[in-house]
């Protein structure tokens, strides 16, 4: 899962942009931990009751702020994950990825969340995500991609989509875009990927250090000039837009895992109930062993179920 968010900012200065999110960091009466936007790994603990609530609420509030209609997650996926709808539809164990909003949230909490979003000088405009099933991940690997390549290319693809959306929503002759990303694993150099994603831009490497890689891209087309500052930072999710994207991606992952566990738990398995998996390597072999009768009976191609790497 990869997620990206588009914001309208009052300043293009990186230092001033940090302070635009103060309203989100302030305690909000009635919201408690649901007001938190932070490290998704700390906010969500697999197996802990209620642990997913904060991710679910923040995702819902974000989608509602962007004006995405509908009373369910599946309604929103038609907009935020349009490129992956066909892949989701052909994957049987992702058919239950849906979640229903509305009555699941207290009205007072909703009002408090609306107040937080409204008082921030930074305005969330759009959300885009990639949901890449194992089959499509493995096909990309067969074409020569590795996990880091796929993460980076998917992320920058979302950036390109949101930049194009920003152009359509607010045409202007001069535009500056700031892009903030978490460091992708151990990758330090992103210049070639950026040039491939934005081939019409002149690219300048500002810095490539052990902690942060920064690039500047520029393009002039007739009377229109565009500049883009892109930075990849170690622990970049300490910056709110990045942490929000991470929370949304994490929430969608957990919905996908819930769908997978439910699918296999409802298949004919014999007398032993199926223990769900969180989907991480430490538990994957046990789960695959447990569902082996279903894999055989349903003639499931393991390349459609298990990532190659």
Account of the protein in words:
Helices cover 45% and strands 17% of the residues. With 309 residues, the chain is an alpha+beta fold. The protein has a four-stranded mixed beta sheet with strand order 3-6-5-4, covered by helices on one side. The chain has a two-stranded antiparallel ribbon with strand order 1-2. Helix 4 (53-65) packs across helix 11 (240-265). It is globular and about 65 Å long. The model has no long low-confidence stretch (mean pLDDT 86).
Question: Concise description?
Answer:
With 309 residues, the chain is α+β, with helices and mostly antiparallel strands. It is built from 14 helices and six strands.
Span between N and C termini? 15 Å
Number of strands: 6
The neighbouring-strand order within the major sheet is: 3-6-5-4
Could you tell me the strand content as a percent range?
A: 15-25%
Q: What is the rounded Rg?
A: 21 Å
Helical residues, percent: 40-55%
Give the integer mean of the pLDDT values: 86
Please name the defining characteristics of this protein.
309 residues, alpha+beta, four-stranded mixed β-sheet, two-stranded antiparallel sheet, 45% helix, globular
Structural topology:
Elements: E1 2-8, H1 14-19, H2 22-25, H3 40-43, H4 53-65, H5 73-80, H6 85-89, H7 107-119, E2 123-130, H8 134-142, H9 147-169, E3 174-182, H10 191-197, E4 202-208, E5 212-221, E6 224-233, H11 240-265, H12 281-290, H13 292-297, H14 302-305
Parallel strand pairs: 3-6
Antiparallel strand pairs: 1-2, 4-5, 5-6
Helix pairs in contact: 4-11
């Amino acid at each position: 899962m990869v997620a990206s968010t588009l914001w309208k900012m009052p300043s293009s200065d990186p230092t001033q942009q940090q302070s635009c999110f103060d309203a989100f960091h302030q305690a909000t009466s009635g919201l408690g931990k649901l007001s938190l936007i932070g490290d998704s790994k700390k906010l969500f603990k697999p197996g802990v009751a209620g642990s997913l609530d904060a991710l679910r609420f923040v995702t819902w509030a974000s989608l509602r702020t962007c004006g995405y209609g509908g009373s369910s997650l599946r309604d929103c996926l038609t907009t935020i994950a349009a490129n992956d709808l066909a892949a989701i539809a052909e994957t049987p164990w992702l058919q239950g990825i849906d979640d229903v909003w509305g009555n699941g949230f207290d009205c007072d909490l909703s009002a408090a969340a609306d107040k937080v979003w409204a008082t921030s000088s930074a305005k969330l405009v759009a959300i885009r995500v990639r949901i890449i099933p194992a089959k499509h991940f493995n096909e990309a690997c067969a074409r020569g991609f590795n996990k880091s390549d796929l993460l980076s290319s998917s992320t920058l693809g979302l950036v390109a989509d949101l930049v194009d959306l920003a152009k359509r929503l607010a045409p202007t002759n001069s535009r500056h875009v700031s892009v903030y990303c978490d460091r992708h694993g151990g990758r330090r150099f992103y210049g070639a990927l950026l040039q491939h994603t934005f081939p019409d831009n002149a690219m300048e490497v500002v810095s490539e250090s052990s902690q942060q890689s920064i690039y500047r891209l520029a393009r002039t087309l007739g009377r229109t000039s565009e500049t883009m500052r892109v930075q990849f930072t170690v622990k970049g999710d300490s910056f709110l837009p990045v942490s929000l994207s991470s929370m949304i991606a994490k929430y969608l992952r957990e919905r996908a895992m819930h769908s997978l566990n439910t699918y296999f738990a409802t298949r004919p398995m014999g007398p032993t109930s199926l223990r769900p998996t969180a989907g991480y390597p430490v538990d994957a072999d046990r789960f695959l062993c447990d569902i082996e009768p279903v894999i055989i009976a349903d003639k499931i191609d393991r390349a459609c179920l298990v990532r190659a790497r």
